[in-house]
From TrEMBL:
This is Cell division inhibitor SulA. Signal peptide: none annotated. Component of the SOS system and an inhibitor of cell division. Accumulation of SulA causes rapid cessation of cell division and the appearance of long, non-septate filaments. In the presence of GTP, binds a polymerization-competent form of FtsZ in a 1:1 ratio, thus inhibiting FtsZ polymerization and therefore preventing it from participating in the assembly of the Z ring. This mechanism prevents the premature segregation of damaged DNA to daughter cells during cell division. Keywords: Cell cycle, Cell division, DNA damage, Septation, SOS response. The keyword Cell division applies. Is rapidly cleaved and degraded by the Lon protease once DNA damage is repaired. The record marks 174 as: Essential for degradation by Lon protease. The keyword Cell cycle applies. GO terms for biological process: division septum assembly; DNA repair; negative regulation of cell division; SOS response. Residues 167-174 are annotated as: Lon protease binding.
Amino acid sequence: MGIQSSWVYLPKHQLTENRLSLSSPEQDNSAERGGIVSELIYGDNQAVINHILLPLLRQSGNEARWLLWVSPHKKLSRQWLIRSGLPLDKIVQLNRINSITTVDAMEKALASGNYSVVLGWLPTLLARDTVRLQSAAQKGNALAFIMRPQNVNKGANGTESQSNLLKIHSIYYH
């Protein structure tokens, strides 16, 4: 299987027209929006959060927007946030919320455009909920991470076995 490229050379006046139409405010630029929804499955003894997620959160903390943690029945540790180098003044946490309304809260936060990253600890989502979150992330140009602790499985010999799973959904990798 090969990659084919084709170049089309347009006369200079057509290039100018195309440039003007691309910057036209009434044109829908949905293809340029960068919102995504990814699922991160992690184990408590794995440093995946530190190596993958924290650099992204630190970088997003430099934006003018907020970071939202939707974590039902779990409270963020202030000491952990400080040690991790995350900006305390840009983090919002919802922790007294049940998992049924967590998807709704994430959807509203993503669509608002006020949050650069929204992390939510959720059970497996229905396809329609994933579509709702994806649409909201694109609308608000935000990143959503569905955080899920890894299940520990008992092996045949009674020992605990874990598989390293990291699902990061992208249109570029499948």
